[in-house]
Amino acid sequence: MKATPGNGFAPWLPDDGPAAATGLAWFDSRRAKARAQVRDQGIPTTKHEAWRYTSLTRLLEQGFTPTAEATTPLQPRDLEPLLVPGLDAYRVVLVNGRFIPGLSDLQHLPAGVRVGGLAQILKSDPDALKDRLNGVVGESQPLFAALNTAGLDDGVVVLLERGAQLERPIELIHLSVGMDEPRVAQPRHIVVLEAGAQASLIERYVSLGEALYCTNSVLELSLGRDAVLKHQRIQTESANAFHIAGLYLSLGAGSRYQCVTVGLGAAWARTDLNVRFAGEHAECDLQGLYLAGDRQLMDFHLDVDHRLPQCSSRENFKGILYGKGRAVFDGRVYVAKDAQRTDAAMSNRNLLLSEGAEVDTKPQLEINADDVKCSHGTTVGQIEPEQLFYLRSRGLSAPLARRMLCLGFAGEILDCLTPDALRDQVAEQVGSRLELAPID
Amino acid sequence: MSASTAVEAIVESEYEHGFITEIESDTFLPGLDEGVVRAISARKGEPEFLLEYRLRAFRHWQTLATPRWAHVHYPEIDYQAISYFSAPKSQDGPKSLDEIDPALRETYNKLGIPIEEQMALSGIAVDAVFDSVSVATTFRTKLAEAGVIFCAISEAVHDYPDLIKQHLGSVVPHTDNFYAALNAAVFSDGTFVYVPKGVRCPMELSTYFRINARNTGQFERTLIVAEAGSHVSYLEGCTAPMRDENQLHAAVVELIAMDDAEIKYSTVQNWYPGDAQGRGGIYNFVTKRGDCRGARSKISWTQVETGSAITWKYPSCLLRGDDSVGEFYSVAVTKGRQQADTGTKMIHLGRNTRSTIVSKGISAGEGQQTYRGLVRIAAKAQGARNHTQCDSLLIGDRCAANTFPYIEVKNPSAQMEHEATTSKISDDQLFYCRSRGLTTEDSVSMIVNGFCKQVFNQLPMEFAVEAQKLLSISLEGAVG
């Protein structure tokens, strides 16, 4: 799609005058290039395949502008209500997209593990990021990745050296608070696990109050040979929030990656998961759960690129739609010509609980090799009347029975969450949302 | 000559008849403008309303761009280099069977096609004393008794102008897509079927028996209307490789089913797929759509697609009537350099509408195959049901199979399931058959036929037998 007059994303871009230059030649030229890409792509419409079911009108109407503040008056105790009770983790806190060391807890990181703010590293040791920034995203960036590159303010860099292992998970909290006007934050995270490293990363997107804001985050992740990462993403943002996340993954030979992503909050949420296999025998497991009620849109796009032989991928996404909630699932599994012995299975199941709810799903397979095992399955349905009858005949009220059955449906994904403290909190959040849902 | 070498000979031999572009006195010069559209209409002596329709379509077509979204690749088509009208009887065909490629005759014999049919298929002028013609005449008498109209659309325009006026373009409007617009502007001829209220058509209708339907040209138009409570089964195409002079085919098929009516539409398509480099094969760009207008109506599409260099077709059902049913059963084979982008659309609008999609794709050699389907359940389609199954079988490591389903559900009482698998013939299955004394080729043929059985079961009996043979022949030599 070509640009329509008056590019709606222009306000997201920082000025490209000399004042904006950081003095880092490679960084400035990448930003200039990204700006050009944003302009060239214009505003995608629903005629654009990747945006077929998701209109950007609502996002553009908000008139988001970048935020300038790099500090926050918040104190560590202000965070307490937002924490997961009993979760023992290294904590990295971003407020409106900026890394706040004062709220973070990174003591006792073992040797071989480095965690720091992206903006700060760009100042102190910029060349460390030269090959990393956009290293996984690549040259041709989709619109929101290009916007992020052009306008990135901060983010987190996590580096595990060869063989480093973390006992406790790293918890990355994206906290957003309301500001004077609708603001967009564009954090960029870079996570690198060198050969044999193992870690667990918990990303949580939370907000204070019913703030209206937009987050456009990009996470670039590369796993070296035999590295193992468990990545959990819990999005419980305010009902007015706009959430855009792009995950770009490069999986080395024999590496194992599991992602459990749960989307509950935000008015408008779009998540793109891009998986590239960079070595043979790598495994990728993507589990997802989403709930959408009135005025909510949950949009997940998966792009799994089996360009090398002998890799396996699992994609299992489940959704519960109620009120006037909408969900979009677009999953693509691509198997290149010589990627023999690929094993890929994609599944998307949806419960549609009320009039006005809608789901648009598009699971795609593109197979160019013959010795493969690939499948996908999709269902859209309701709670089985027999199951409901069974529970009601045992004395449960209809709403309670429905909620139990929905929780059972979600349980398959919730059970992938670890540790139990996290699982319990998310299950409770799912339960309380279902309690308020008009699903009769 | 063993079976496989015979087929290899077919596969490797150049198709001798090619596409003859000799200009006869009765063929229009290449090019397309309003004058050509008027001339086609004048030549056929069409009434004013049809000329108007053609002109509207042509003007709209001029505003359209060639669609690019399908997963197929071919050189740009020059629509001004095509001749849009050719007299029905061309004299450039071979004079006797001796002039026919022996390999092609071998195929005919394997399919068990009688000698007269062989001549007709290879474009030899068939004398009217042959059995098929007398059969056709008998059929026409029987149909007339039942009140069923079955004739060329150009005849129907004169004999039943009201029916044509009422129904033509009512399911696939001329604004529908690029090829539908082109077809509406320049359609050569086609078939019209009208089954009156409560009539069960006494036999399977087939263009095969409509002798004057031969060489209907590249822009065929089919219109089938089934009035309330009627039933009709229509067979299109044939299993034998059909000789054809036109490379671009843009047909339109419209089906209309009123209350309680049922239309079963079966297609076997085996047009010239091009040479080993994929040169010269037929481009088959077809728009097929059925409209279940009445309550409890049913439209069922069954297709076996083995020919054409490029296939681009999505037989669809508009399920408007309450309790109406749509079905799509498809087997598509791509081998050599063939490309197919095919599937269906099931649009659920009425209450308790049901649809079933079963698509089996077989890709061999460097074949490219895509299933593209849409299931849309509108907000008012209470109690709608859909079940979709698309399986792909890959033979050889240079072929491709893609699955692009689109599923849009806006009603909470809808039940929708979609499943797709892609795999190759497993070594275990092959070993099992071989250990029981079957050759590799027979084993493959047996496994593939099993893979397609669900679809073949939907075909009318005689078609099903032919289709099975056709499939075996298509795939012979494809397995190393």
The domain tally of chain B reads 1
Radius of gyration of chain B: 22 Å
**Which sequence of strands runs across the widest sheet of chain B?**
3-5-8-10-13-16-18-20
**Strand-pairing-aware structural class of chain B:** alpha/beta
| Number of discrete helical segments of chain B | 12
- State the total count of DSSP E strands of chain A: 21
List SSEs of chain A in N-to-C order. HHEHEEEHHEEEEEEEEEEEEEEEEEHHH
Rg calculated over all Cα atoms of chain A: 21 Å
Through-space gap between termini of chain B: 18 Å
The whole-number mean of residue pLDDT values of chain B reads 81
Portion of residues in beta strands of chain B equals: 25-35%
The total count of helices of chain A amounts to 8
Description:
The complex is a heterodimer of chains A (about 450) and B (about 475). Chain A has helices spanning about 25-40, 55-60, 75-80, 120-125, 145-150, 385-395, 400-415, 420-435; strands spanning about 65, 90-95, 100, 115, 155-160, 170-175, 185, 190-195, 200-205, 215-225, 230-235, 240-250, 255-265, 270-275, 285-290, 295-305, 310-320, 325-335, 345-350, 360-365, 375-380. Chain A has about 450 residues and is an alpha/beta fold. Chain A has a domain at about 10-280. In chain A, the strands form two sheets. In chain A, strands 1, 4, 5, 7, 8, 10, 12, 14, 16, 18 and 20 form an eleven-stranded mixed sheet that branches. In chain A, a hairpin with a 2-residue loop joins strand 2 (about 90-95) and strand 3. In chain A, helix 1 (about 25-40) packs antiparallel against helix 5 and helix 7 packs antiparallel against helix 8. The longest helix of chain A has 17 residues, at about 25-40. Chain A is globular. The model of chain A is unreliable at about 1-5 (pLDDT under 50). The longest helix of chain B has 17 residues, at about 440-455. Chain B is an alpha/beta fold. An eight-stranded parallel sheet of chain B has the order 3-5-8-10-13-16-18-20, with helices on one face. In chain B, helix 3 runs antiparallel to helix 9 (about 180-185) and helix 11 runs antiparallel to helix 12 (about 460-475). Chain B is globular, with a radius of gyration of 22 Å. Chain B has one domain (about 5-475). Helix content of chain B is about 30%, strand content about 30%. The interface between A and B is medium-sized, with 36 and 34 residues. Strand 21 of chain A pairs antiparallel with strand 20 of chain B.
